[in-house]
Structures are given as C-alpha cells and as structure tokens.
Amino acid sequence: MAAAAPPPPPAPAPITLPEPTPSGHTLFTRIRLATAEDVPHIHKLIHQMAVFERLTDLFQATPAALSATLFPPNAPPPFTSFTVFLLELCTSPFPPSQNPHFTPRLKSLHLDLPIHDPEKEAFRSNASDANDDVIVGGFVLFFPNYSTFLAKPGFYIEDIFVRECYRRKGLGKMLLSAVAAQAAKMGYGRVEWVVLDWNVNAIKFYEQMGAQILPEWRICRLTGEALRAHAHVNL
Amino acid sequence: MAAAAPPPPPAPAPITLPEPTPSGHTLFTRIRLATAEDVPHIHKLIHQMAVFERLTDLFQATPAALSATLFPPNAPPPFTSFTVFLLELCTSPFPPSQNPHFTPRLKSLHLDLPIHDPEKEAFRSNASDANDDVIVGGFVLFFPNYSTFLAKPGFYIEDIFVRECYRRKGLGKMLLSAVAAQAAKMGYGRVEWVVLDWNVNAIKFYEQMGAQILPEWRICRLTGEALRAHAHVNL
User: Fold this and answer.
1) What is the dihedral of CA A138, A220, B194, B44, to 10 degrees?
2) DSSP B25
C-alpha cells in the first residue's frame, strides 16, 4: 500500500510567451524572369558559384559580356533562348506583378529564426517594383534543348545557385521546379542538367525530385585552341 | 656448291591496267543547312539511329512533329535555335550554291572502290539544286548552349549520324568539324556532346579531334510523369 502522497508543489507561475509575429519569421519569396538590370547581381552570383566550386581559374565572365550575350538588343522572347530566373526574398509580401511571358511564382517560408544575410547591401534587388528589403538570393540559367527521339524541345539547366545564407530551405528545389513547371506548361519533353558523380547529396536530392541519373553518358568538350583550329580546316 | 639453276620460266605477259577514271572512284560531298523539305530524310535518319542504338522503344518522332519543332513558321535564323546540317554525296561535283547563313562545305573523297548504297532510292536529296544522283548520307543536329563562366554561347550537338554504307570514311568527322568551325567563326566558347562510356572507339576518335572527355559529370533527366507533376505544384 503506497504511502500517502505528499502535497503537490505549488504550480509554477505560467510563463507568458509573446504571440509570434507572423511577419517576423516569415520569408516571402518570388521567382521572376531576370532582366538586363539584374546583370550586376547575376555576375556576382556566378562568381560566388565559381568560388564555391573552386573553379575561379575558369571564371572569365564580365557584366558587359553577360549583358551582351544574355540580354542583347532585340533579344528573342524568354524560353526560346538563354533565360534566367531570379530568386528574390523579402520580409514583407511582394506586390502582385504581371509579365506577359511569365507570372512570378510566390511562396512564403515559415522559419524558426530570421536569416542574417551578411551581403544584404550588395544584393538589394534592382526590380522596378521592389522596395529596399527585397534581396536577390539565387538564380537559375536555362535554355531550350532538343530530343530527336521525342521530336520535342526540352530545357537544359546550365546553372542553379542559392547564396549560402539561404541554403537548406528548399529554395534550390523551388528554382528547379519553376523550370520544370515551365517545361511542362509548354508541353516540352524533358529537363536535363548535370551533377558531379561524387556529389551524393545532390544526386539524392535530384532523385527525390523525380530525376533519373544516367550513369553511362560522358560529356565531350571541344574548347580553346582545339576548337579554334577547326575554323580554318575542312576535315 | 649449288647445282646449276634451271632456266627461268618465261616472263608472264604484262597485264595492262586501265587508267583509273578519277570521277569513277571520287565521291563528292556537301554539308549544307537542312530545310523543311529535308524532314522526310531527317526522320528516316533518326529512326536508323534509334535502330543502331537499340532504342526504338524510345522513338516517338513523326515527320509532322519534326517539321513543327525544327522548321516552324517564322523560324528563328539558323544557329540561334535547333539547327540541322545535312550531309549529301554525289558521284559528280556539286554546283556552287549560296545561302545567306551558311556557305555549304564541299569536299571530295578518293575511294578505292565505289560505294554500293542499298537505300539510294529512299535517300535521294530533295535539295532544289540536286540532280538524281545526290544522296543524303547523314546529319548533325545542334543548338546553342551557354557557359556562365565564359559568358559566351557555345553549341551542343544532340545527334550526329552517318548511314552505314558511308561509315569509316571520315564523314562523321566532317560533320563534327563543320559545327566546330561554325562555333569558332561565331566566336563561341565551346562545342559539347555526350558519348557512352563503353564506346571506346568513339571516345578515342573524339580525343583525336581535340575534345576532352569529362569523367565526373553525370546527366540528370526529369521526364514523363515526373516532369508533368511539376506543372501543378509550387514546391
């Protein structure tokens, strides 16, 4: 038979937590078509990618060269040639915006902690409708490719990049999915990109998104002098 | 000491060989831009490629789908989108021809034996300037790609194919070199394509042409239902 239970200790004073401020830990995101005004940011993002991949020795891009090749005068419509989606982030909601070629994709993320962005000043958006709190966080560059077996175009993703302080929050997935959604909308046959074979985390991530990894194909590249040598010979 | 040698047999009567007829064993070749009129041949060539690669289960191309995607109304200029070079062969020289976008590349091959083409009838050229002896022998399909590190376009070769009876004569090399020469002429940064890792003969051939094989990259592909699933979600 159990001893009589001691009297319960006095209940602790209830701790009153402040109501969470929804906007404080909410990050609003937008994926939109990039324009020539975004070139300075795109240039910095590509350079950060080169640093991340330890390939700065191959980095030769200048803002002028990016402008001339990505946003030439009389540029063809988006999706028919080189196309850039830019990822923007803001602590307040984005205004509704219209673009005849692409309706920006909006999504809000609920985070435990606000993100400290040490490069906020350098990455303030140049969008005409952006306030000072809109920050560029990443990009994806893609262009049409073609499958002769399907007799259909597709998209090839050359680069996808999210700045370090915004990683591991599903933003890369959002960029990739925006390209896939556009391909599906246009009736295209496939979306392709490449991954380094030792990058097992990326491979796992891509497989979870429904991608197949083709183990047998290898990329062949003709560049530099070996390429220029073909200009003057008729083999 | 050797026995006296028997008298030599009478010398055989000299065999008089006919003078080789230069045109009889010369094959004239032309690489030119394909047009919508070439679609029936392009379709047959793609099908032959699928048979060669044992991938006929993936072959879905129809002439109508190829026409609509490769030669749409208001098609952009060659080299800015999907572009096809056609390889033609003839036992007599090609007439001079002009094209504002691409001057056909001509070369003559000297062969020990004439080539027997069992499909000559099916592959008579539809070129407006071609006589009945001009035969389609192969093609290469390519389109612009982009290097962010170089801030330059390049070309990606999706398919390169030479019909069986014309192989091992340097014609594949001529098609590849025509693309490389065009890239070099346009100041492009590189030409890329893929090869199966077990196809050691092709790898050796590409390396001899100056290409690097990139061992670490793997192709990721999102297609079919996995692609279409992205049309309706905002990940």
Assistant:
1) 130
2) T
E strands, A38-185, where? 83-90, 105-110, 135-147, 152-162
Which residues 139-178 of chain B have a CB within 8 Å of chain A? 141, 143-154, 156, 158-159, 170, 173-174, 177
Using DSSP bridges, classify how beta strands B135-147 and A26-33 pair: parallel, antiparallel or unpaired: unpaired
- The confidence score (pLDDT) of residue B6 equals 47
Q: Check residue B53 and give its pLDDT.
A: 84
Residues of A in contact with B87 (CB under 8 A): none
A82–B144 C-beta distance less than 8 A: yes
Contact B192, B209 (CB under 8 A): no
Please report, to the nearest 10 degrees, the dihedral formed by the alpha carbons of residues B64, B192, B76, B224 taken in order. Answer: 40
The pLDDT tens digits of the residues spanning B122-164 come to 999 999 888 889 999 999 999 999 999 999 999 999 999 999 9
- Work out the burial of residue B152: count CB atoms within 10 Å of its CB; fewer than 13 is exposed, 13-18 middle, 19 or more buried: buried
The DSSP bridge pattern shows strands B190-196 and B152-162 to be parallel
Residue B8: DSSP 8-state: P
For all residues of chain A together, what is the average pLDDT? 90
Would you state the structure tokens that stand for residue A195, as one six-digit string? 């991954």
Integer Cα distance of A49 and A176 in angstroms: 16
CB contact under 8 A, A189 and B223: yes
Q: Which residues contact B10 (CB under 8 A, 6 or more apart)?
A: none
Q: What is the CB neighbour count within 10 angstroms for residue B183?
A: 26
**B208 Cβ under 8 Å from any chain A Cβ:** no
pTM of full prediction above 0.90: no
Instruction: Spell A54-71 as b/e; 16+ CB within 10 A means b.
Output: eeeeebebeeeebbebbb
**Strand A190-196 versus strand A152-162 pairing type:** parallel
Please, are residues B174 and B181 in contact by the beta-carbon 8 Å criterion? no
Q: Which of A66, A191, A233 sits opposite B227 (nearest CB)?
A: A191
List CB contacts (< 8 A) between A198 and chain B: 216
- Spell out the residues 6+ positions from residue B202 whose beta carbon is closer than 8 angstroms to its own: B195, B196
Report the distance separating Cα A70 and Cα A96, nearest Å: 26
Confidence grade of residue B90 (pLDDT, cut at 50, 70, 90): very high
